[in-house]
Amino acid sequence: MEGIEIENKDEALKPTIAIRCAKAALLICSANRFLDSTNNSEHKEREMELRREAEDLRRKLVRERLKIRRMKLCGAMELLLQMAILLSGWILCLMLALDFL
User: Which stretches are transmembrane (predicted)?
Assistant: First the structure.
């Protein structure tokens, strides 16, 4: 059940990640267009601004990926813990049942 919820969250996050990648690509593309402009000082300022924005978007993308990875790991650990508790409960019941026989 937990794995399904995490997969649904992952699928919901994929479009936002794709949008952020597209924005970063658009910023890089527009930075390349400004390379051909005649006003050099404005051009350099705008280029630096676009590069900063692109780097910020890349950082956000990395953070989102790490967050998704962390959620998957927590879900897996929770599943293992639940299985261990269930197994120990079954062992306890089995030991009690065999003790009374």
Answer: 73-98
Name the token pair of 27.
Answer: 């910023």
Give me the count of residues in the chain: 101
Residue with tokens 């699928």: 11
Instruction: Please tell me the predicted confidence (pLDDT) of residue 91.
Output: 94
The H or E element containing residue 46 is helix 40-100
Q: Are the CB atoms for 54 and 27 separated by under 8 Å?
A: yes
* Global pTM value: 0.50
Q: 9: domain range?
A: 2-100
Angle at 42 between CA 39 and CA 45, to 5 degrees: 145
The secondary structure element, H or E, covering residue 57 is helix 40-100
